[in-house]
Each structure stands twice: as C-alpha cells, then as structure tokens.
Amino acid sequence: FSPGLLVVAGSFAAFRLLNQGLERLVPPPPSARRNRWKWRNIWTSLAHSALPGTHSPSPRRFCLHPGLSEDLVGTHPPGAHSLVAVSVGYFLEDFVDMLCNQKLHQSWELLFHHSVVIVCFGIAVLLHQYVGFALVALLVEINSIFLHLRQILLMANLVHTTCYRLNSIINLGTYVVFRITTLAWMTRWLFLNRENVPPATYAVGTVGMAIMTPMNIILFYRLLRSDFFK
C-alpha cells in the first residue's frame, strides 16, 4: 500500500467538496444558470490548474535540484510526489463528475484524456519513479489556467470584451510554449532514454504521447479558428 494513495483519496475528496460548494463561492451569472454543473466543473478545473501551474518546474527549481534535469526517473524535488498524487485525485474527480453529469458523446475526448493521464501519473505515484517526468508534464497546466478562463468568459457571455480578447492571445501563446513544446520535449526525452526505461513503462509513455500530441494539435486548431479566424 502506497501512502501516495492516501493523498490521491484526500485530493479526490477535497476537489469533490470544492465542486459542491463553488456555486455559493462563485454564483453563476444569468447566462450560465442553465448549465450550473458546467460552471462548477470549470471553476474546479481552474482551481486545480492554478495549483500545479504555480509549482511546476522552473529554471530556479532546476538550479536548486540539478539532478532533475539529468534524471527524470529516480530524482524529484521535495513535494513533487504529493503534487502528482493531488493531480491524480483531481483527474479522478473530474472523470467521475463528467461521467455522472454529461452525455458520453459530449465528453468522450476529455474522458479519454483523463484516462491516459490517470494511468501515467498513477504509475509515478505507485512506483515513486518518473515523478520528475510527470512534474514536467504538469507544465501544461499553466496554459490550462487560460483555457478555463476562456470557458468561464464564454459562459458569462463576455466574448466581445477586451478581457476575453487579451485572454485569447495569452491562451494561444502559453498553448504553444507550455503545451505543444512541453509535449514535444517529453516525446524527445522518451526517444533518447528508451534504453533506460523498462519496456512496459516505455510502451505506456509512448502510447500516451501518441494520443496526447494529436489531441492537443486538434484543440490548438479549434482555438485558432474560433478566436482568430471566425
């Protein structure tokens, strides 16, 4: 039994409680009252993105833990394992939330995405290995902050405001830097370290990257078309 599972369970419960109480903390505007569940779900996702987004790897962290840049398998800074476990708890909670409140044809892409993340991050939590690799993957959450803000602004019917336009520009810029570039770097790392990674783990990582990369490229195209070429 891994203590990390306790963190996963605690995270699941905490995000579930947050989800249930968010409507009182952030009441939905009239334009979002028809879909109160989605309003709560997006704000819960934003809360998660802000957590790893502010604790993801940075140049300072790599300087304080130089081994992290050389070994993403067995080396990770203090707190990194717990951060990955918290993310697993969130993705499990969001998976259950979508499964219970949204039709399958509307959510299958995100459910598929969450399944891949839960498996990959779950391996890191259980084995206490590849935590550094998972920590690099959490860089994408920096962009997720602006993705979720975009959805909130859309639901609040603020699409024609300066705030939405500014967020769209930042969203697209951080998408390229923190999502597409990060996934490309992770794919390169897997390829260069294929001899140092067990075959089963390498297969899981390769399949994960093969799924996530096209999904993110398609989402980038949708964002570009919707916000800039509509």
General description of the model:
- It is a single chain.
- The chain has 230 residues and is an all-alpha fold.
- It has one domain.
- 78% of the residues lie in helices and 0% in strands.
- The longest helix is centred in the last third of the chain and has 31 residues.
- The radius of gyration is 18 Å and the shape is globular.
- The mean pLDDT is 87.
Annotate the secondary structure layout.
Layout: H1 3-25, H2 36-53, H3 59-64, H4 67-70, H5 80-101, H6 104-127, H7 131-137, H8 140-155, H9 162-192, H10 199-227
Helix pairs in contact: 1-2, 1-5, 2-5, 2-8, 5-6, 5-7, 6-10, 8-9, 9-10
* Percent of sequence in beta strands: under 5%
- Global morphology: globular
Task: State the domain count.
Answer: 1
Tell me roughly what share of residues is in helical segments.
over 70%
Largest sheet: none
> Can you tell me the residue ranges where pLDDT is under 50 for at least 5 consecutive residues?
none
Tell me the distance between the termini: 52 Å
Total number of helical segments? 10
Care to count the β-strands?
A: 0
- By secondary-structure content and strand pairing, the structural class works out as mainly alpha
Mean pLDDT: 87
Could you give the order of the helices and strands?
A: HHHHHHHHHH
Computed Rg: 18 Å
Subcellular location: Membrane
Transmembrane segments: 133-149, 169-191, 203-224
Protein name: TLCD2 protein
Keywords: Membrane, Transmembrane, Transmembrane helix
